[in-house]
Design goal:
208 residues, alpha+beta, 10 helices
Length: 208
C-alpha cells in the first residue's frame, strides 16, 4: 500500500503546528516547528493568503497526515460518518479514533501512530484475546486490547510505556501498564479528542 516516506517534520511545518508525528521528540527543543516556525521550501517564509477553499483543504490535509491516512481511506470514513446519526465532523473522528493503530497509540503502547501501525502489522497486538494485524480494524466499546506476551520486551514498547505519565492517558480508555493491556471504556466525545483540527471545514469541503 502507498505510504509517505518523506520527512515527518516537514508535514508539521507545512501545517504550522505540532501534529506529534514523532511522539516524544515533539516535546523537546529538537522539534522542527519550534526551531523553524515557517513552512518548508524556498518560498516558505513568504506570506501567502489562503482562500476559503485553501483553509478547508489544509484542515483536511492536516487530519489525513496526523492519522497517516490516504485520501481514499479518509473519504470512506467521511462517507460512513455522513450515513450515521449525529454531527458528521464529530462522528468522522470517532470512527478514525476507533482504528486499532490509533487505540494502540492512545494506550501508550507506541510512541506515535506510525509506530503503532507497524506494531499492529507485525502481529504484536491482541483484541479480546485474538491476534489482529490489521491497523484499520475497528475496536468496539468494551473491547480489551493487549500486547502479546512474547512482545512485551520490545524496546520500542517498553520505552513508550515508560513515558506514559508524561503523555497522559485519555479518559475514555484505561490501561494496565504492568500487564500491558487496556480497555476501551466508551466512544470519545469531541471534547475528549484534543486534536488541532476544525472538522467543520472538512465537512464543508466534502459537501461541495
Amino acid at each position: 500500500m502507498a505510504r509517505y516516506i518523506g520527512a515527518l517534520c516537514r508535514i508539521c511545518r507545512r501545517e504550522g503546528e505540532k501534529l506529534f508525528l514523532k511522539g516524544n521528540r515533539c516535546d523537546t527543543e529538537k522539534c522542527a516547528v519550534e526551531r523553524r516556525k515557517y513552512p518548508p521550501g524556498q518560498h516558505g517564509q513568504g506570506f501567502k493568503k489562503l482562500s476559503d477553499y485553501g483553509f478547508q483543504l489544509r484542515e483536511k490535509q492536516k487530519a489525513k497526515k496526523m492519522y497517516g491516512l490516504l485520501e481514499r481511506q479518509f473519504r470512506k470514513y467521511f462517507e460512513r460518518a455522513e450515513r450515521k446519526k449525529g454531527i458528521t465532523g464529530e462522528v468522522l473522528f470517532q470512527l478514525i479514533e476507533s482504528r486499532l493503530d490509533t487505540i494502540v497509540f492512545r494506550m501508550g503502547f507506541a510512541p506515535n501512530r506510525r509506530s503503532a501501525r507497524q506494531i499492529v502489522r507485525h502481529g504484536h497486538i491482541f483484541v479480546n484475546g485474538r491476534r489482529v494485524n490489521l491497523p484499520s480494524y475497528e475496536v468496539k466499546q468494551g473491547s480489551t486490547v493487549g500486547v502479546k506476551q512474547a512482545s512485551k520486551d520490545i524496546p520500542e514498547i517498553v520505552d513508550s510505556i515508560s513515558k506514559i505519565e508524561h503523555r497522559g492517558i485519555p479518559s475514555w480508555v484505561e490501561v494496565d501498564t504492568v500487564n500491558l493491556t487496556g480497555k476501551v471504556l466508551n466512544i470519545p466525545s469531541r471534547e475528549d479528542l484534543q486534536i488541532p483540527v476544525q472538522e467543520q471545514l472538512i465537512v464543508e469541503l466534502y459537501s461541495k
